[in-house]
Amino acid sequence: MSFVSVITVVGAVVFVGLVATVALCIDRRSVRRTFDTLDRILIEAAPYLALVGAVVAVRWLVHDESVALSREIGRDITGLLFGVEGFFVAGLQAITPDFLVPVFAAFYVFGFSYLLIVPVVLYTLVSELRSLKELLVAYALNDILGMSLYTLFVAYGPRLHIAGHVDGLLYDLYPQVYALTGAVSANTNVFPSLHTSLSVVVLVFAWRTRRSYPRWFAIAAVCSVAIVLSTMILGIHWLTDVVAGTLLAYVCVVVAGWIVAAVENRRLRGSGATPTHASQGADD
Questions:
Q1: In terms of Cα–Cα distance, which of 146, 150, 226, 147 is closest to 188?
Q2: Contact at 8 Å (CB) between 66 and 195?
Q3: What is this structure's pTM?
């Protein structure tokens, strides 16, 4: 299956999930009110959307150069990661029932893209602009910091370093997916786990808005936990990568709050309004 075919399948599944989630989590009156002011919302959110688009585009364009630079200057920490945790991932694979492996693979491939896209749409439709802006900045920071760490540190995942004990279950089940993962990552891009960091970022924002959107919080919690577990069960990441990804998510959320607060306060001062000091979600 070609790269385009894989993208098409993933896009179709994510679109169906998105439509179902919007229907489940948002009432029609809220959507109608949002559409009445959608032009204002998009104008206000445009710089943040452009930031994420620019970061993703740059990452895509310099991917090969980044991998080459990493092999030149990066420190190989694979042995260190294995020394810290040993055969933890092998043990986790061993206790995972076979019938759950395809489920975790689906969360890794489809659930991850779904989890990233849905909150952007949800927060746009319900005019949660502060949450939307902070989420987008956190996405951008995650990509920038994550790729910087990937350049500085060379690390191979358990499926490669201890192949006799850990199976590469994702590619055993769906070899076609390699066309997708190979286009955006390299087999040395392990520390930290960006699947983990981005999933935790989404979960934090879902937690912040949980009282207003409890169904979305429940969905995000299930998806986030499943995706984090899948990175290890499929033999892609070490537990240490997951811990580092969680810490990266925390840093990105906190710094995103500072950045958006500074930008918004400057914008409000320019318009003569009273600056705010909070970088809180809807429920805080």
A1: 150
A2: no
A3: 0.88
State the sign of the Cα–Cα–Cα–Cα dihedral 160, 166, 172, 173.
negative
Name the CA radius of gyration of the chain, rounded. Answer: 20
Q: How many CB atoms lie within 10 A of CB 243?
A: 15
In 3D space, the residue among 50, 203, 45 whose CA is nearest the CA of residue 112 turns out to be 203
DSSP classification of residue 109: I
CA distance 228 to 161: 20
- Say if residues 3 and 183 touch (Cβ distance below 8 Å): yes
Q: 125 and 26 in contact (C-beta within 8 Å)?
A: yes
Reduced to 3 states, what is the DSSP secondary structure of residue 154?
strand
Exposure string of 85-100, with b = 16+ CB inside 10 Å and e = fewer, is eeeebbebbeebeeee
- 252-270 pLDDT, tens digit each: 999 999 999 998 888 777 6
List, in sequence order, every residue forming a beta bridge with 75; answer none if it has no partner: 153
